[in-house]
Design a protein that fits this description.
heterodimer; A: 238 residues; mainly beta; eight-stranded antiparallel beta barrel; two-stranded antiparallel ribbon; 2 helices; 7% helix; B: 160 residues; five-stranded antiparallel beta sheet; four-stranded mixed beta sheet; 9 strands; 10% helix
Chain lengths: 238, 160
């Protein structure tokens, strides 16, 4: 199996062509290698980019993870998002924050000295948010009278949502201790508190909330930096 | 390894391009029209057909021509106001002379959220009807505590 073309393939997601490999391991003898264990802090890059190109969206997310054992990384994300929705018969917006807590499991066996990941992850997600109804048109089937368009501005606050999220992602160490990652999410709502007289249409951290399904999707790409604080022996099976 | 990468990209593309779009289907409830049944004043339990019925709202330049049969008329009410005034015309008797009456319908309305695709509709309560310049209506009745929330029930009976 050719590993180098695969690395270049992964890194080329981000339009960069790093071919530097980190060489941080300390060799004690030819069979035991030490790997870095540390705390990683980063930001999601897709949200600021989307904030710039999508005038209906602003958002930011910071993420962190920590290498507990060789392949288990407890992880968390914290974000704030604001999204304006334009439906056929009304417009409004949703704004709030979310927290996701969970763990990533690395399924990829690195080469000696590598710190890349292909991981699956689980998260428990939680959001508090406020919705606002801006303008709406009364729906009627006949057109005898002109359309009744109303301005509202009514706010629905104190809304909450809880969900479970499943992730698949890649993380590659492109420079010393600097990682680029991309991931995709599939989530299922557990409970969300609907406002009376309206509905939850878009939830920060969950994205579009449809009436017909409890499921949602998402994705992102991020950059993170690792602060290593110890080295641990890599268990090499012979 | 390559397979994992390909599956991953597949899922990524799917989640990125996934966009559900609901449509507001015809059978969803919308703002209901006022349902009127024309009854025989001499035999009050039976319907009596009206000849050449036409209705025109004061707020419109046009006659409302849909949803009218011999014995039932379904008329839209204004959601922007708490009353709608209509003029009803019929052809009466053998000479088919046109007779008219002005009816003012008063009500209270309330918004109701239907769905993401349909948005909001109105329902009406506390219907009252008053007659003016009446040439052909003998009596009108409104069922007790009727609320206009769909077009399944009759909201107003006109006896002629």
């Amino acid at each position: 199996m050719k590993k180098i073309p695969i690395y270049i393939f992964i890194i080329s997601f981000f339009g960069v062509s790093f071919t530097a490999f980190s060489q941080e391991d300390t060799r004690i003898d030819t069979l035991i290698y030490k790997e870095k264990y540390g705390f990683r802090l980063g930001i999601d890059l897709s949200k600021p980019v989307r904030s710039f190109i999508d005038k209906n969206y602003t958002g930011i997310e910071i993420n962190g993870d920590y290498r507990l054992t060789e392949n288990f990384y407890p992880a968390a994300e914290l974000g704030h998002e604001n999204y304006t929705f334009n439906e056929n018969n009304f417009t409004g917006s949703s704004e709030g924050q979310y927290l996701k807590l969970g763990v990533n499991y690395n399924v990829y066996k690195n080469w000696i000295g590598m710190q890349n990941e292909i991981y699956t992850g689980l998260r428990y997600g939680f959001s508090t948010f406020t919705e606002q109804l801006d303008e709406y048109t009364i729906y009627k089937k006949d057109h005898y009278f002109p359309p009744d368009v109303r301005e509202s501005g009514e706010k629905f606050s104190g809304l909450t949502a809880h969900w479970i999220e499943f992730r698949i992602g890649l993380k590659a160490e492109v420079l010393n201790n600097l990682f680029l990652g991309v991931h995709t999410e599939v989530k299922r709502m557990i409970t969300d508190k609907s406002p009376s007289g309206f509905a939850n249409l878009w939830i920060p951290g969950f994205n579009e909330r449809y009436e017909s399904t409890e499921f949602g999707v998402g994705w992102g790409y991020s950059i993170s930096y690792m602060i290593p604080f110890r080295k641990k022996d890599r268990k090499e099976k012979q | 390894m390559k397979r994992i990468a390909i599956i991953f990209i597949g899922i990524l593309l799917l989640t990125v391009s996934c966009q559900k779009s609901d449509i507001c289907i015809e059978s969803e409830p919308s703002t209901p029209r006022l349902v009127i049944k024309f009854m025989d004043e001499n035999r009050p339990a039976r319907t009596k057909a009206v000849e050449g019925f036409n209705a025109k709202a004061k707020d419109s330049d046009f006659y409302y021509s849909s949803a009218i049969t011999d014995t039932i008329a379904m008329l839209p009410l204004l959601t922007t106001n708490d009353s709608t005034t209509y003029e009803f015309f019929i052809h009466q008797g053998d000479s088919l002379k046109t007779e008219s009456v002005t009816l003012k319908f008063a009500y209270s309305s309330e918004d109701q959220y239907i769905s993401r695709a349909c948005g909001f509709r109105d329902r009406f309560e506390n219907l009252e009807a008053t007659l003016e310049n009446n040439q052909w209506i003998k009596n009108i009745t409104i069922p007790d505590s009727i609320s206009i929330k769909d077009e399944k029930n009759t909201h107003l009976y006109i006896y002629h």
